[in-house]
Amino acid sequence: MNLELYRPAVRDLWFKRDLLADEATMSYNRAWGGTVDFPEELWGRWHAAWVEREGEGRRSYRYLRDADTGEFVGEVAYRWDPEYESFIADVIVHARYRGRGYGGAGLELLCDAARGRGVATLRDNVALDNPAIGLFLRHGFAEEWRSDEFVMLRRDL
């Protein structure tokens, strides 16, 4: 596998729209509403906040791209969350690409990128019924605490 982080342009956000609209991909998000609408009129403002201003250090967003085929297979991101006083990770692999190792490889690329930008710790709050808990645990995250809704996972970088 030859996976890379790709900085999307505004015109590439069709993939994010498709990712968020796919029921199988977003099944992990059922507890919080499932699929998410991402209309084109929001793309410019969203891109400015998440991609163009990432140098401010509070967030980072990249697509996961198979370098051999050029296909976008998912996304990775992190953002500062004041409620948890921590950077929260995000990894989504499109359902049609799951089971091929992209999630683990993408999570490692995200951790490396975050470490390179001075982030010391990543966390993620994962719904209790989400199989991604196992993915995070296999890649160096540990359970920090849990609620009735989710488990908070942590990895020191």
TrEMBL record:
Entry-linked Gene3D superfamilies: 3.40.630.30
Residues of the signal peptide: none
Domain named N-acetyltransferase: residues: 1-157
Membrane-traversing stretches: none
Coiled-coil segments: none
GO molecular function, one term: acyltransferase activity, transferring groups other than amino-acyl groups
EC numbers, comma separated: 2.3.1.-
One Pfam family recorded for the sequence: Acetyltransf_1
Name recorded for this polypeptide: GNAT family N-acetyltransferase
